[in-house]
Amino acid sequence: MDLQSFLKNKVVRNNKLYTIFLDEIGAGPLDAGCYAFAAALQKVLGEGSLYSVVDKGIAQHVVLKVGSLYVDADGAREEKAFLKRQKDMEDYTNPTLRLFKESDVPDSPRSESLINKLAAYLSGEGKMSKAKRVKEMFEDLHDFDQVLRSFIEDSQKKIDADESKYQYSQHTKLETMSGAKYIRIVAVNQAQSGKSAWAFVDKETGDVFKPASWKVPAKHARANIFKPNTWSSVTAYGPAYLR
């Protein structure tokens, strides 16, 4: 079962979830409860950023972005499909997405009590079964190549920022080479035409490893391309040493 089906059939249509919303605010997760639902899911997953759906200059709805997916109580979709769904279902003129601001959707309650109750429900009342299942589904739905590109773009920005500090920049650019098990990320020194292994990415799990050599990654993952909150352990010089 994909994440969209899971959320719609196992979460949204569950009477207990609606009971929590109705008892607290008298509205559902796709109405006034959109902020609380997104904030609760963010709390359970431990990652993601809140985004607002804006139409005619007004924030209309709050969703959670995890990787390349936008998710609310109606399911998880890539940006283009998500905006089309919003336009078709909500009769918006030209919906767009931007990072959530505290002044957005002021009528959507921010109740910590509601958010905590929703988070407890979504996490399986402390067992974390639903949270684990949702997390795994998020990872399955991600397009590996797209997420890898985002990770490399983020890493390239770190390299560019580091090299801009020095007068004689090396102009290092990251490239990829695909192997049987790993993607080798290569640092290409454009000034000297030299290449070195910068990182290895497991093609199945998305784990990021420091190179032990040109052909072999070191043990122990330093980050994961599907988890942007782990990217801080990757510097301009590659995955950091374990402390």
Architecture overview:
The chain has helices spanning 3-12, 15-25, 34-45, 79-90, 112-122, 129-141, 144-163, and strands at residues 49-55, 58-66, 69-72, 75-78, 96-99, 172-178, 182-189, 194-202, 207-209, 223-224, 234-235, 238-239. It has 243 residues and is of the alpha+beta class. The protein has 2 domains: 3-141, no CATH class; 144-239, no CATH class. The strands form 3 sheets. A 5-stranded antiparallel sheet has the order 4-3-2-1-5, with helices on both faces. α2 packs antiparallel against α5 and α3 packs across α5 (112-122).
Chart the SSEs and their pairings.
Elements: H1 3-12, H2 15-25, H3 34-45, E1 49-55, E2 58-66, E3 69-72, E4 75-78, H4 79-90, E5 96-99, H5 112-122, H6 129-141, H7 144-163, E6 172-178, E7 182-189, E8 194-202, E9 207-209, E10 223-224, E11 234-235, E12 238-239
Antiparallel strand pairs: 1-2, 1-5, 2-3, 3-4, 6-7, 7-8, 8-9, 9-10, 11-12
Helix pairs in contact: 2-5, 3-5
